[in-house]
UniProtKB/TrEMBL annotation:
CDD domains: AAK_G5K_ProB, PUA_G5K. Belongs to the glutamate 5-kinase family. It comes from Actinoallomurus bryophytorum. GO terms for biological process: L-proline biosynthetic process. This is Glutamate 5-kinase. It is an enzyme of class 2 (transferase). Substrate binds at S58, D145, N157.
Amino acid sequence: MRTAIAGARRVVVKAGSSSLTTAGGAIDAARIDALVDVLAGWRQPDGAKGHEVVFVSSGAIAAGMGPLGLPARPRDLAAQQAAASVGQGLLVARYTSSFARYDLGVGQVLLTADDMMRRSHHRNARRTLEQLLAFGIVPIVNENDTVATDEIRFGDNDRLAALVAHLVRADALILLSDVDALYTGDPRLPGARRIENVHGPADLEGVRLGGSGRVGTGGMVTKVEAARIAGVPVVLTDAASAGAALAGEDVGTYFHPAGARPSARRQWLAHATTGQGRLRLDPGAVEAVLRRGKSLLPAGITGVEGDFSAGDPVDLYAEQGGLVARGLVNYDAGEIPELMGRSTRWLARELGPEYEREIIHRDDLVVLAVTEARTPAG
Ligand SMILES: Nc1ncnc2c1ncn2[C@@H]1O[C@H](COP(=O)(O)OP(=O)(O)O)[C@@H](O)[C@H]1O
Ligand SMILES: N[C@@H](CCC(=O)OP(=O)(O)O)C(=O)O
C-alpha cells in the first residue's frame, strides 16, 4: 500500500492524448466517461468533500484531427494549433457533460510556459485554480496551444502537469498513459519488464525510454523528467488503473520523491523558469552559494553575459565549470560590470547605500548542480 498516495487530499491527474482519443482522431467518449467515473468517485468519496482533483488533459490536437479531416497528427505548428483550437472546445464540452452526471462542474484553464515562468502570471494562475477548487469545480488544464510558439512550447503535457502540481501544492501526481507502467524497454518489444519503484536515477540505469505512441508526444522521457521535478510522489500507469493508483495500490510505476520538498519559490525557480543571462562566479562564490547557502555578492562575480533586467532569473556558472545555481538578480545586466569584484562596503561608500544590496539574495537562489561545479580551488 502506498500510503502517501492513499492519504493524498489534493492530486493532479494528467491523461495523455492516447488515453482520451481514438485512432481516427475523435474523442473516445467511453474512455472519458470511465475516467470521469473514477475521478468523480475519488473526488467525492461517499459524498464527503475534502478530496480535490486538478485534471491536466491532453488530446486537443488529436481530437481536432477527425473534424478537420486530417489523417494523422499534423507536423506543422499552424495545423497543430488549428486542430487544438477545434479539439479543445470539443474536449471541454465532453468533460462538462461527463462530470455533470455527478453534479460536478468543470472550468477550463489554459496555460503557457510563459505563464509558468512569469511570477505574476504564476501567482494569478494559482489564485484562479485555488478559487475553482474552493467552488468545488474540477479544473481542466491544458497548454494554451493556439498562442504558444515552437520555441516556448511545452509540447507534451507531462512537464506542465508537474508544474501544476507545484502550483497547487498537490500531494501527488498521477500520470496516465496508454502503457500501464514504465518498462525496462519499449513494452511493444519482447523482454521488457515493469519497473515498480523508482527511488532515484540509479533505478533508471539501462532503461530504454523510447519514443511516443500514435498521437502522444515525448514518450517516456518527458514522463520520467516530470516525475523528477514534481517534488511529490508520482504514479505512472494507464487510465484503466487510475482508480487503483488513487487508492494507493501497487500498480504502474511509483516514483518516490527525492528528499524534502523544496519551497514553492525554489521549485518555481528551478523548474518553471529559464535563465535570461549568465553570471560567472569565482571559486569562493561557488563555494558560498553551493555549500554554505549564502547570498551572491558582487565581489565573487567575474563575468556577465546576456541582456537581463533586475528581477529576471539568471544562471550562475563556475568560472570554467558548469551550471551552479539559478537566482533572481537584483540588478540590470548593464549595471553589473562596474560592481564586479567590489566589496559591498566599498560600493556603498563610493556609489551610495542602495548599492550595498547583494546581487542575488539567498532566498531567491536555488542550487542546480553539486559536483560538476566544483572548481579546483573550491
Ligand atoms: N521504457 C518504456 N516503458 C514504457 N513505455 C515506453 C517505453 N519506451 C517507449 N514507450 C512508449 O511510450 C508510449 C507513451 O508515450 P506517449 O505516446 O507520449 O504517451 P501519452 O500520450 O500518454 O503522453 C507508450 O505507448 C510506449 O509504447
Ligand atoms: N496540448 C497538447 C498536448 C500534446 C500531447 O500530445 O501531449 P501528450 O499526449 O500528453 O504527450 C494537446 O492537447 O493536444
